[in-house]
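hiii so my PI (J.) wants the whole complex modelled not just the main chain, which honestly fair. so below is everything: two entries, each one labled with what it is. i double checked the lines twice but i was tired so who knows lol
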Amino acid sequence: MRFFSYFRAKFHVIMMKKYVLDLLVRAVEHVSTKHVLLRLTHPEPLPDMQPGQFVEVRIDGSPSTFLRRPISIHFVDRENNELWLLVAMIGDGTRRLGLLKPGDVLNCILPLGNTFTLPQAIPAKYLLVGGGVGMAPMLFLGAEMHRMGCQPTFLLGGRTKGDLLELELFNRYGRVFVTTEDGTMGEKGFVTNHSLLQQERFDRICSCGPKPMMMAVARYARQTATACEVSLENLMACGLGACLCCVEKTTEGNVCVCKEGPVFDINRLLWQI
Amino acid sequence: MADLSVKIGALALKNPVMTASGTFGYGIEFQDFIPLDGLGGIIVKGTTLHPREGNDYPRMAETAQGMLNCVGLQNKGVDYFCEHIYPLIRDIDTNMIVNVSGSSPEDYAECAARIDALEHIPAIELNISCPNVKDGGMAFGVTCAGASSVVKAVRRRYHKTLIVKLSPNVTDITEIARAVEAEGADSVSLINTLMGMAIDVERRKPLLSINTGGLSGPCVKPVALRMVWQVAHAVKIPVVGLGGITTARDAIEFFMAGATAIEIGTANFLDPAVTIKVRDGINEWLDSHGCRCVQDIVGCI
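here's the output for the full assembly
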């Protein structure tokens, strides 16, 4: 065990056993014209998963999709033994996921990557910032915090009202604030323009979304001396730290986002913020 | 149960399935999915005398039935390998083989010599065919003189099984194979990736940071198979075949073309347990076709 704790501390790696599983599609909900929610299950109890981690999904029946697709874990419903994935249908591969039907099988490698840092002491004041489909991992993170006895604050942003998904679910676990670029819901503008950020301070910010958004969040965090973690989505092949394709430049050189990330403390990154 | 054991020079493999360098990390990345000691060999990530940061991101582009990469030999150097990685992998009960690269014959030889001293590394694969580095790599593998110079320098200082990995980016791969055989290589493995390119037409920019990269995956298999067949007829040393192998049937094709053993690369990304499935499939095929051992079909074409 000493070896593993050394390994984890040194390399920011989570040592959780990984599996290749044929998951069973239990439900397919088209939550918007561009997004599909997949509720997956398995005859055996699903492996332990932590907020921030992701799965590598094999896309069958799409000739132009050669590699698996990394998809962040949206929610784990332990009571019903379900893993939820929220998928933005962008290319042929992800559109194919939108064609799945209950009863279909989805082959996944899981759980992959590291996790957001959960509070070490209660109470803790966390701000969870999600942009677009980047709001997916924030639900799982918020739910875990709620389970620990924390009430997180969600700040969710989209281009328009239709991009803001499942707000009633987020509402179960904490306060929810929203922005839209066109002003069709919540405050008009980007998440970093929201008045909340002028009114309150937080112990830690966790963020996932488009890189420009995360950089703006990181800038705010630095200005206010707030701890901040971001979840990156560099292009990946293996998802296991073997192929070295998904690297991000850090204070320790190039590291694999799939293994030492996807969650990074902003102080490890070489972003110009 | 057919006899799956094969020999590459003095190196005994319990079965002919190995993993291709750069696709399987140091093996331990896959230990949750397969028993690593069920493989014939694990060829670990390309290692150089000095640490290398590799190329900038993006390093990967998906293509039809394959992918391009331009990782560029990112590794922490041979001393880090010997000190920190070797202790983690030395007791894995299979042939742990190190892929060695460099930017001069002296670099290659020095790196190989340091690995020669490691008791549990019975072989190296000399990478004279990486298309993603400017200094060295493929530069040596595309001429007979360049390939000879590296193998000669390494052979003087490396005493165990020496496999030389060949580049397909040449006009006649058999000439290079003969040249490295003449300098004392114990085996050749082929093919490394085919140099390729992909462009984002909306941004009017290449998809890879250094414009070009190495193509791998099922799309390269027919080219690889043809080259293995040509080389197997040109040299006397055993040939290790790789390039797009995904199924046992693919592997059988390579044996028939003249490969004594095979490596599985890109397919590990699609199914991390593919190597063991291919091994078992080879056994089933041999059994169902009345073959007692792999050698029964090697080079039958």
